[in-house]
Amino acid sequence: MSRDPFDQMKSRNPVPEGQAPAAPMGVANRIVGGRTARRAGWPGWAVAAATAAVVLGVGGGMYWLLGGGGSEVAASTSTTGAGVTTTTVVVTTTNGSTEPVIVDGVVYFFLDQIGEGWTSGPYLVPVHATFEVDPGRSASERTLDEAGMAMARLVEGVDDDATSVPAMSSAIPIGTQFQGVAIEEQTGIITVYLSSDFVSGGGSLSMAGRIGQVVFTLTAIDGVHGVRFSVGDQPTTVFGGEGFTIDDPATRAGFEDLLPAVMIESPAWNGAAGNPAVVTGTANVFEAVVSLALVDDDGLIRWEGTTMATCGTGCRGDWTVTIPYTVDEAQWGSIIAWEASAMDGSQTNVREHRIWLTPSTGPTVEGAVYFFGEGDRDTAQSGPYLIPVARHIDPNAPYATALQALLDGPTGAEAGADLGISTAIPQGTIFNGVTVDGRIATVDLSTEFTSGGGSFSMMGRLAQVIYTMTRLPEVDGVRFLVDGTLTTVFGGEGVIVDDPVARPEDDTMLPAVMIESPAYGATVGNPLEATGTANVFEATVSVSLYAADGTLLFDGFTTATCGSGCRGEWSLTIPYDVATPQWGRLVAFESSAMDGSAVNVRTHRVWLTPTGSESGPPCSGALVTDPLVDQPDLPAAVAATRRAIWEAAVACDWEGLRSLLGSGFTYSFGGGSDAIAYWQQLEAAGDDPSYLLAELLNRPAGTVVAGDQTYRVWPSAFVGEWQDVPEADREALRPLYDDADFTGFAQFGAYIGYRVSILADGTWVSFVAGD
Amino acid sequence: MTVPRRGVGTPTPEESFRGLFARHYGAVFAYAARRVGWDDASDAAAEVFTVAWKKLRTVPGEPDTLPWLYGVARKIVANQLRSHRRRERLDAKVAGAPPVAWSDSDPADLDGALTRLRRDDREVLMLAAWEGLTPAEMGRALGCSPGAAAVRLHRARARLSAVWEDTGGSR
């Protein structure tokens, strides 16, 4: 037998060729016969409305609406006490005097859920639709406009381009014509005019289904509280041969049978989720507990949790949950809601909506997460010690975004900086969820969190989480769950924490002089407000501030609230003067009692701003400190492009970079059309592509020949299998990559980090990472 | 210039679909059966062809049809596996073992080695070993270039060998 496992795999094909069953053509017929064909030549409701019936007022004002041509007619009908009806007709010409606005709406179809764990259906599903409305219209007119567009969309049927799996369907017969809508302004009761095709064919279930679609669609519109039907010009409350009877007016009550046990109302199918996603629905499930998950385009679960409906175990209640999530770029994902079986926890009554996920665009606040930083090599006490590192924290979901930023670890720029910032949290740790209640944050992490490392590493990672969470408002203590299980003992050596656990009294994780604020890498105002803690001789803390070129901007000292054996707090206001925004260094230290030299030094890189300006650092490329080293063996054209890219990257000159992009430039294997926008998005998310671009160009170059083209590629370690990369070329990757990264490359078989390629003629062809 | 139009003898969409279904059902069913087992394969295959019917206008012609169907099947199977995995997580069981229905008895070493690979790597290996796809076909199924598919297969084979040696599978 061959020793190659791949050959063994071939010989173990679970379904060898020719063993599959013959094609069951009945299935094909069922697929083709499904109601998926688009009806041809639908004239649109505005035209059909020319046949709308005259509407009689039932009391109070009534508007009715006809469409046609470029004008719309709204009529106000009112009944006086003596039964005299007067009608005022208003003609609105929609000739573009006001810009129409697009609003989100929903129409209801049926989702036939198939597959294991799915409810058998079909059940109603809200599907996203967009309506164009005139912002100048009154509330009643607006309601009518939306109702008209929703009904036109509804009778049009299921979009055959829809990518819903399983398939959607409509119970409204093909050929049904929507003729108009009218509304009683005071009661919010809407009357919908449909051709008699609406009641053709189908049994009472189908009849209930189509009426349910109309009722749910119309009552989803603001201002609509009930629905009356006029079918073939006849007011109708009894439908079809089997005499399906509805209330007058019809409301959502009475259509319970059309709803799945767990119903997602918003976001609708194909709707935008927003960030954080606010998900609402109804449910009739055991003990009212609804389980939910938010899944991204790759099928990764980004959030998982439960919520309570307002009623359960036999009655239908409402539920709502706000889901924070992080995605790098806008993409399709899913919101999945289900009932966990009381018997075995399995998923039952699953409802899944395809939804559009977007990166958080909300305002961000400067926050910080805690990593470890070595001290200054000559003078600091040996570390590493905790250091707060600046991160943007989304105020809508501060706990989740802070934890995610913590798990993401330091950026390459931070790891390569003079402090060598690192994390004790193992790679691959997944954040399952966080809740805050009674000033206690309950943090749920995957088991990777407890893997590897000795007791110091274990205490270190616990401290990182505790300090990060308690830096946030409303949190004094942390409770740890590992994959849902309350955990107080960590690791083989048994590190024990309280439940809940607060910041510890002892300060073994802290340097003698700790800067709490500004965090490392933070943008600071002018003057700079520095705070921290210290455990130093006679409580005296010295503080200096330096500009980018090393100029001393401030030198002073302050006294901590406690000293010489106890840890006290200190704070200091530092005025400074710089002409341009720039990176500076804030240094806090203890002056040696022996000789006045600086000991226990802590340094934070901070972004200094001239008085009256507060813009952040323009990009991570600004962090580059080493000059570009000449690489004499490069062709002149390549060398020129290399220098131009480097200069644009360190200057954060995005437009300069854009002008250097070659045609067919590759920056992401996922596709996309704007490299610059992609990198800016990464920068905004805390990634550092411009830093890596500049730093990699300062690494040795490799040569790749493909066909008749010769490329220079940085870093040289990209060329060939990892095991064949010379030691010197590997080591040149430090400090951008560490031992863990090297292990990853070795396992993968090749360097898969970012690399830059330039053609021999100087064309910049790629800056891309990944497989 | 030829304007495509339907005339006498041009198949209707229904006829095109039935032809496509008859030609490729077996292959798509086998693809699903290799990954989710025989029992769930017919559901998956039906879903794949439901998508094909809805997107009939965008389904590429032969010989690219089957690789395209594999691409759809990959997502649908991933969906099924995902819901299996969610259930497994709820059951607090160890997740991750691919529900592969092996035909031989207890090839524990190879099974274990495959399990330890990344999902992408497993898929590339299966497409090559079981579906017998060429790099060009694999590229279409995975949505990458033929060159990239070849490189992925090469690397996946190397990693499979490495993991297999590691688990003592070379006996």
Question: Can you offer a commentary on this structure?
Answer:
- The complex is a heterodimer of chains A (771) and B (171).
- With 771 residues, chain A is an alpha+beta fold.
- Chain A folds into five domains: 43-105 and 129-254, no CATH class; 262-357, Sandwich (Immunoglobulin-like), CATH 2.60.40; 365-496, no CATH class; 513-617, Immunoglobulin-like (Sandwich); 623-768, no CATH class.
- Chain A has 14 helices and 40 strands.
- In chain A, a hairpin with a 6-residue loop joins strand 19 (331-340) and strand 20.
- Chain A is globular and about 100 Å long.
- Chain B has helices at residues 13-36, 38-54, 65-90, 108-115, 119-129, 135-142, 146-166.
- The longest helix of chain B has 26 residues, at 65-90.
- Chain B is an all-alpha fold.
- Chain B folds into two domains: 13-101, Rna Polymerase Sigma Factor, Chain: A, CATH 1.10.1740; 103-171, Winged helix-like DNA-binding domain superfamily/Winged helix DNA-binding domain (Arc Repressor Mutant, subunit A, Orthogonal Bundle).
- The interface between A and B is large, with 56 and 66 residues.
Structural class of chain B: mainly alpha
Query: Which structural class do you get from the secondary structure elements of chain A?
Result: alpha+beta
* Count of β-strands of chain A: 40
Number of helices of chain B: 7
Q: Strand portion of chain A, in percent?
A: 25-35%
Total strands of chain B: the figure is 0
Main beta-sheet strand count, sense and barrel state of chain A: 7 strands, mixed
Principal-axes shape call of chain B: globular
The helix tally of chain A amounts to 14
- The strands making up the biggest β-sheet of chain A line up spatially as 3-2-1-7-8-9-10
Q: Order of SSEs of chain B, N→C? A: HHHHHHH
Rg measurement of chain A, Å: 33 Å
Biggest interface and its residues per chain? Answer: A-B, 56 and 66 residues
Please give the share of residues in helix of chain B: 55-70%
Which consecutive residue ranges of chain A, at least 5 long each, have pLDDT under 50?
34-97, 114-119
Q: How much strand of chain B?
A: under 5%
